[in-house]
Amino acid sequence: MVDLARKILFHDKVRFLITVSGVAFAVTLVFVQVGLFEGLLANASVTIEKIDADLWVSARNTPNVDFSNTFSETMVQRVRSVPGVARADNLIVWFGRVALPSGATENAVLYALEDFTHWNLPWRISTGDARDLRRGKYVILDDSATKRFGPFAVGDYREFNGQRLKIIGRTAEARSFTTNPIAFLDYRVAQSLDRQSLHNRTTYILVKLAPGADAPAVAAAIQHRLPYNNVWTRDAWAVRSRSYWTDNTGLGLNMVMTVFLGCLVGVVVVAQTLYTSTMEHIKEFATVKAIGGGNAQIYAIIAKQAVIAAVVGFALGALMTSGLRPIMAGIDLKLSLTPSFAFVVFAGTLGLCLAASAISFRRVASLDPALVFRG
Amino acid sequence: MNVLEAADVVKTFREGTESVSVLRGASLSLARGEIVALEGPSGSGKTTFLTILGCMLTPTSGRVAIEGRAVDPNRPDRLPWLRRTSIGFVFQQFNLFPALTAAENVEYTLNLKGLKGKSARIEAARVLEAVGLTDRAHFLPRDLSGGQKQRVAIARALAGSAPIILADEPTANLDSQVGSQVLELFRDLAKRENRALLIVTHDPKVRGVADRVAHIADGVIQN
């Protein structure tokens, strides 16, 4: 079978290049925008997803994991008494001021537990041991702090809220949505850094369920005993933390607009080039009709050209995005791309290219095969 | 039996509020193996008549029959099938697909007719050999001369088993010598393969290869 669609498309290589460039540009734009957005949002809930807790208890109306509020640390006893709870510990998440050797100050997000061994926190430690934190005024600092705080090494001291803490380890990937690096320290040390706000107070209670326990039922039981707090399942809390940033900052709308514009550019380029190509080959299509082909055959030709443009454009776009990934990682921008998202973009590219080709269908439907007899 | 028959064909077009009659009762018949030249001045209705005979247009009134079966003007959806199965076309501008080689141009037509794969390749090779273009089978149209292009177009029209070949000014874009060669070849092949050939032309050389010359003037055929 002679593949007229492919032959026509590849015959004019410049036009083909323009078409696939348009698609590739749109695909790259969508990948980069959504990838950056997802990468940024991942920071908004990374600790929730990494910490090995089934339920989180927060102060009422806490908007996201970073913007915590305090409540009495003794509430943890009530939680521990709820049937179905295997373990419950207080967690402090609090902003701290770090004095730098340069004299400047920067913010860090403090994560403090009494016992780090049960909660997979920190989840990626490159130097040091989190069990040592409870032995004194120590801190484990994330690598991302290098950019904000300058170079640091294990054994160095930094001043947190006026207290000197010794750096005893380094972690990776621990940063908040606010771009502040995360510092891990002992629960009591954290309370001592801000006595006014944190004396005998915590910001969260982490809950691990007993095997076979029903999460919603246990959450309801905890909620019953702590009516002035909120109880969240891990997923619900992660969604709430992410939604805060998308809904309250215009970030979500910005992303939707950029993706929409990216798609629009892709559709316009494909529609325009396919339509121009159809018009330029109109006499060939009239010949197809004259020698016995119907509209269906010509639609198939144009649709196949759109599919080829979509597939090649998507592949090019994906390739460009993979090339950009390490470059962006070099400037601390995380592109978060999953296979399922890539599939959605591919399906979208295919659908939009086919929709763009439909503009040419209208012209072909009314094409008179007798055109072949006109010079 | 006539393979193509047109009787009292009338075609009227509307131009604004006026009706223009291009054909006013044109009649023509062709038998298998017969070559007919259709001559006429510009605006006489040649192309409209050819378009109706080629099942691209339906007449306002009158009857067209192919291999004894009347073309139903109320079934325009059947026209592509008739063109595919019964008619081969040769156009003034050759109308080859620029992106396809000579062989692929012929093969694509065969694909439309339902012949695919090896069978289509064998048939394409056969007709290209018949027009003397075996050594140019894999050339794109841009690499062929005008005469060679028209021979590919003839091969395309002959490919398959369409009993009727309709040619529109096939020598108009060729120089005199090449035009004569193409006409000789066309006549030989039509006779050998027993096809009915109608050539619409201004070229007096066509008379030399035709069995019969029909004139069209003011929408009426004068044999």
Distance between the termini of chain A: 30 Å
Query: What amount of the residues of chain A lies in strands?
Result: 15-25%
The helicity of chain A comes to 40-55%
Compute the number of strand runs of chain B: 10
CATH fold description of chain B? Rossmann fold
- What is the mean predicted local confidence, pLDDT of chain B? 90
Main sheet specs of chain B: 6 strands, mixed
Oligomer: heterodimer
Q: What is the distance, rounded to the nearest whole angstrom, between the alpha carbons of the first and last residues of chain B?
A: 19 Å
H and E order of chain B: EEEHEEHEHHHEHEEE
Strand residues, percent of chain B: 25-35%
The total tally of domains of chain B equals 1
Task: From the alpha carbons, calculate the radius of gyration of chain B and give it in angstroms.
Answer: 17 Å
CATH-scheme architecture of chain B: 3-Layer(aba) Sandwich
Q: Into how many domains do the coordinates of chain A divide?
A: 2
Shape of chain A: elongated
Quick check: average pLDDT of chain A?
Answer: 88
Q: What structural class do you assign from the helix and strand content of chain A?
A: alpha+beta
Number of helices of chain A: 12
Tell me the strand order in the biggest sheet of chain B: 6-7-8-3-9-10
Low-confidence stretches of chain B: none
Give me the secondary-structure topology.
The complex is a heterodimer of chains A (375) and B (223).
Chain A: H1 4-11, H2 13-50, E1 55-59, E2 71-72, H3 75-80, E3 85-99, E4 105-113, E5 125-127, E6 138-142, H4 145-149, E7 157-160, E8 163-171, E9 182-186, H5 187-193, H6 195-198, E10 201-202, E11 204-209, H7 215-225, E12 229-233, H8 234-249, H9 251-280, H10 282-290, H11 295-330, H12 339-365
Parallel strand pairs in A: 4-9, 6-8
Antiparallel strand pairs in A: 1-11, 1-12, 2-10, 3-4, 3-7, 3-11, 5-8, 6-9, 7-8
Helix pairs in contact in A: 1-11, 2-8, 2-9, 2-11, 2-12, 9-12, 11-12
Chain B: E1 2-15, E2 18-31, E3 35-39, H1 46-53, E4 61-66, E5 69-70, H2 79-86, E6 87-90, H3 102-112, H4 117-130, H5 146-158, E7 164-168, H6 176-192, E8 196-201, E9 212-217, E10 220-222
Parallel strand pairs in B: 3-8, 3-9, 6-7, 7-8
Antiparallel strand pairs in B: 1-2, 1-4, 4-5, 9-10
